[in-house]
Amino acid sequence: MNLFSLSLRNIRHRLFLSFLTVCAIGATVAFIVLFSLFRDSVEQGAEKGYGPFDLVIGAQGSETQLVLNTFYHIGAPTGNIPANVLEEARRDSGVDKAYAMTTGDNYNGFPVVGIDPEYFLTRYGDRTLKEGALYTKMGEAVVGSHVAQTLGLHVGDTFTGAHGLVEEEGQHSGEEETGGHAGEGETEEHSHEGFLYTVTGILPTLNTPDDRAVFTTVDYAWAVHELQGEDREITAVLVKPSTLLGAHNLKQTLDGNGGVQAAYTSKAVSDVVNAVDQGSRLVEILAGLCVLLAAITILLSLIAAAGERTKDAGLLRLLGKPKSYVWMTLISEGLILTLTGLAAGFLAGHLAALLFKEVLFAKAGVRIDPYLWNAEHGWIAAGTIAIGLLASLIPAFRMYRLHPLALFKS
Question: Annotated region Disordered: where (predicted)?
């Protein structure tokens, strides 16, 4: 009987204990893989979330809140600013493109965003819509791919929005409006049954937070709330500067002027990512504890196996098998269990990422890629194998040192 067959026979002989060992290794690897995929997705999603718009102008308040609401459609806006801020930004020689944004309404929990349709060309280039065409007049709307899929919307469908920003747990399909109260910092929603939207187009899958928003013309908010003249305000201005110096000069001009703030998008996003990294350190500690428990599980399993097979090992030695053969039986058994748990862990981790993909995107606008394989996977595999090998060496070395008669008599 060759070494591999003997190791498999020994594993089958202690099937339940072997199964628990594989589960411990697999659960640990799956947890680390899922954490790795989530962290990479957050970093990539944060980078892709704001596109070429390095500066955002809005009402004074938290820069992070302004950026998250403007680009990631998370939370409430910091307030409104005068509409003439847009023209002031466009007149600046350091500005390449500037677009006004109006927010504050929702449709079944998804934000309704008013913005110039040229925004899509500036940010995503000349990409073809999945269906239909961009809006050209008030009352027309384009919906993100996630919104269309979740609510079953098609070109030509009509709907009415509601005032306020609500959590997505309250969403439902159809023409009926959601009720209840908004989350912290948000207002109670009121339906706008007199203002009807018509879907003219559906965006392709962009893998950005724009997949989970409804877009229409900037003036929709003024029409819905019957605002005239100086009462017409905007939520934010998205600025694509022509140069970094242009962004700096515009920020210096507008920041703190008349209740207006100008924020560097990358800085605010970096603050959020850094906060996530701080939290990830705790998760890394928990992952380390899981690795330690998995190593102990392998060690205990192989010690139990060595205790059961000391007489068998002694008999093999008396029959002329070398020390190395007996030594390798335990090591190969440990490696088989480790590799099986590693494969199961990789499969479970990516499967969990696939299952949680839509939930994470719906909540935070971050699209996790369950099919992503990176260099960190190699380190996970190498570390798992090394730990399994190390745990196998301890009982194997003990059996290696004992005399054949001592093994047999034990």
Answer: 169-191
Residue 271 lies in a domain: no
CB-based contact 4:11 (threshold 8 Å): no
Long-range pairs of 3-9 with CB within 8 A, sequence gap ≥ 24:
3/325, 3/328, 3/329, 3/332, 4/332, 6/329, 7/329, 7/332, 7/333, 7/336, 8/336
φ/ψ region of 104 (left if φ > 0, alpha if ψ in -120 to 50, else beta) reads: left
Residue with tokens 């992503």: 372
Q: What is the mean pLDDT of residues 217-228?
A: 84
Three-point CA angle 147, 361, 265, nearest 5°: 100
CA 92 from centre of chain? 37
Whether residues 100 and 244 share a domain: the answer is: yes
**322 and 247: one domain?**
no
Q: Rounded to two decimals, what is the model's pTM?
A: 0.70
Residue 270 domain flag: no
Residue 395 has pLDDT above 50, yes or no: yes
Cα–Cα distances (Å) from 242 to 72, 90, 247, in that order, read: 23, 11, 8
| Judgement on whether residues 229 and 180 belong to the same structural domain of the protein | yes
Question: Does residue 153 lie within any of the structural domains?
Answer: yes
Say how many CA atoms lie within 13 Å of 335 toward its Cβ. 14
How far is the C-alpha of 97 from the C-alpha of 238, rounded, in Å?
8
Q: Are residue 193 and residue 289 in the same domain, yes or no?
A: no
